[in-house]
User: Which sequence fits this backbone?
């Protein structure tokens, strides 16, 4: 698994939970969908602190596996629940987004995370985002941080290519030549002593 695959799995998971809301990635140059919607903003992916790579040799190739993690911010935007003509709708944003934290502890979510080789957990409190405008047409918002962990396995000497998959260089990606480099290893050694 790589970062893009983990992000795709998070988007799929959020779409399962919030089936009536569009799930969009923050920071894109695209119009926001109609309310309700969920915005997920991904942070940088890093190697988990204090963790080393696991090294294996598979079919004669060195394979390195790293525990990786990133955080993401999930923002739920909703109109709330109508209370009647001329009345302010009931703000359900925090309660609705807190359902995600409960869902992540369910067997259903556990099966999804197992199938997708990721772990998703909440980090911190679910917070309301208070608008600075008055009016019944202003959507309600809530925000929750998530921590996503996954294992990334790489097989080339430069640690760029995933096992069993060809590497295609994007315009801004790492050099394809580096991804073709392979590390060697010893299967045995003969030691001669000179006196």
Assistant:
């Amino acid at each position: 698994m790589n970062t893009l695959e983990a992000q795709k799995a998070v988007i799929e998971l959020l779409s399962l939970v919030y089936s009536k809301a569009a799930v969009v990635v923050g920071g894109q140059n695209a119009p926001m969908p109609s309310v309700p919607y969920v915005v997920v903003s991904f942070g940088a992916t890093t190697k988990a602190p204090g963790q080393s790579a696991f090294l294996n040799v598979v079919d004669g190739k060195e394979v390195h596996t790293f525990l990786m993690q990133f955080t993401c911010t999930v923002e739920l935007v909703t109109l709330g629940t109508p209370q009647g003509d001329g009345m302010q709708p009931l703000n359900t944003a925090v309660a609705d987004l807190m359902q995600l934290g409960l869902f992540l502890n369910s067997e259903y979510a556990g099966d999804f995370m197992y199938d997708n080789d990721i772990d998703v957990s909440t980090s911190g409190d679910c917070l309301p985002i208070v608008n600075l405008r008055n009016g019944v047409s202003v959507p309600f918002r809530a925000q929750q941080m998530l921590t996503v962990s996954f294992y990334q396995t790489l097989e080339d000497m430069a640690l760029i290519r995933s096992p069993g998959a060809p590497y295609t260089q994007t315009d801004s990606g790492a050099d394809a030549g580096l991804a073709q480099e392979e590390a060697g290893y010893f299967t045995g050694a003969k030691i001669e002593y000179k006196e």
Q: What stands out?
A: The helical segments are 3-17, 93-103, 107-116, 176-180.
